[in-house]
Amino acid sequence: MKRVPIHLITGYLGSGKTTLLNNLLKEDSSHIALIVNDLGSVNIDAKLINSSNLKNKDMRMVELSNGCICCTLQDDFMKEIDELASNPNIDKILVEASGVSNPANIANGFLMYEEFIKTKCYLSDIVTVVDSNYIYNKYYDDIENYSEDDEPDIINLIMDQIEFCNTVIMNKCDLLDEEKIKLVYDLIRRLQPEATIIKAINSNVKSSELFTKKKLDFDKLMSSSGIAKALAREEEMDKVNPDFGIKSFVFEARRPFDRLKLEHYLETEFPTSIIRAKGYIWFKEAPSNVGLVEYAGGEMTVSKSGQWLASFTKEEQEEVFKQYPEVLETWDPVYQDRINQIVFIGKNLEKDAIIDRLNSCLTE
Q: What is the domain extent for residue 282?
């Protein structure tokens, strides 16, 4: 019986997982299925992947939102894995876990699944993407001085993600000098002495460097330095909060943003409680352009990410509607496909205040 390899991609919020997936799919996306997990109710990462690979009809993608595949969505995740692995046209499945997923829990789900069900797939690789700049500037001292008596928190999650994998991608190395890169490299090596460590910029890594196609050696991974401590920490974190106190919400609005008002808010008033933000926006001053707003590691970027279908000719629109009729489900009679849709993730978020402030940046 053909068994399909599962390649799991994990890493904290904003580390570059979606960029990695898009890079890999540009290299080769034939006979591949994707599962994209997002903590929020709107799966922005899945939309980014879909928009980048819109013409590829051979690629299958499943979105799992409103929870994590390591806990609340684990049963749904395994059902989707089983269904995709049953498809004879699929040779591999790539899984992008949410930024707060613990890979040890996901791997444990596979073990339990294999124990009770004759599987059509196997877990081949766990790849953790690390934002090297974020680790150095925000968490380096915390990890260096970590004590077992410390309270469970985000730092524990980041350590667990590094410890429970067989490949670490040290991403965003262009933001650090060589001395700082070495410090982060040595720190990761102490946490995970067995994993392959790959230095990268913009998650630019070849699939041949990542995917072994061999079954993951759980025993070796479990015996790696720090793993037992990681599982003990996981038990403590579950008692505190399965999502590490991190919550999310979605801001949606059809009206366009006023560019100057939004830029002022993002540059001078953006709440420190927000860990991650990602989504699509549009400006009155540039109605054809899809704007991609991203916030991660203390850095905010707003960039162009293609064009709205509303800017296409009527003939071009009709052709898209024929191929992708689902577009019409959210088609607005006034704004067509233009929409502002941003997912915010953070701790102690003042949701109503953030939404009110963003609404004040909208215009007619």
A: 247-359
Residue 364: inside a domain: no
Residues 6+ apart with CB under 8 A from 210: 7, 24, 125, 127, 167, 169, 198
- Measured CA to CA, the distance from residue 76 to residue 95 in angstroms comes to 13
From the list 69, 227, 196, the residue with the least C-alpha distance to 130 is 196
pLDDT in tens, 109-167: 777 666 555 667 888 899 999 999 988 887 766 655 554 444 445 776 787 788 889 99
Helical packing angle, 351-359 and 259-268, nearest 10°:
150
Residue 331 DSSP symbol:
-
Report d(CA 37, CA 66) in Å as an integer.
8
Distances (CA, A) of 81 to 6, 123, 172: 9, 11, 31
Q: What is the pLDDT of residues 292-345, one digit of tens each?
A: 887 766 778 787 777 888 888 888 888 878 877 877 888 899 999 899 988 887
Do residues 201 and 256 both lie within one domain? no
Q: DSSP H helical segments within the chain, as ranges? A: 17-27, 44-52, 74-85, 103-116, 132-134, 140-144, 154-163, 178-191, 207-210, 218-222, 227-240, 259-268, 314-323, 351-359
Q: Structure tokens of 16? A: 């570059």
Same domain, 30 and 177: yes
Q: Which amino acid is at 159?
A: M
Q: What pairs with residue 346 in β-bridges?
A: 247, 274
Same structural domain, 213 and 277: no
Distance CA 257, CA 364 (A): 8
The model's pLDDT over 189-230, given as tens digits with 9 standing for 90+, comes to: 887 888 899 999 999 999 888 887 788 877 677 665 454 454
Pair 106, 45 in one domain: yes
Same domain membership, residue 347 and residue 259: yes
Three-state SS at 210: helix
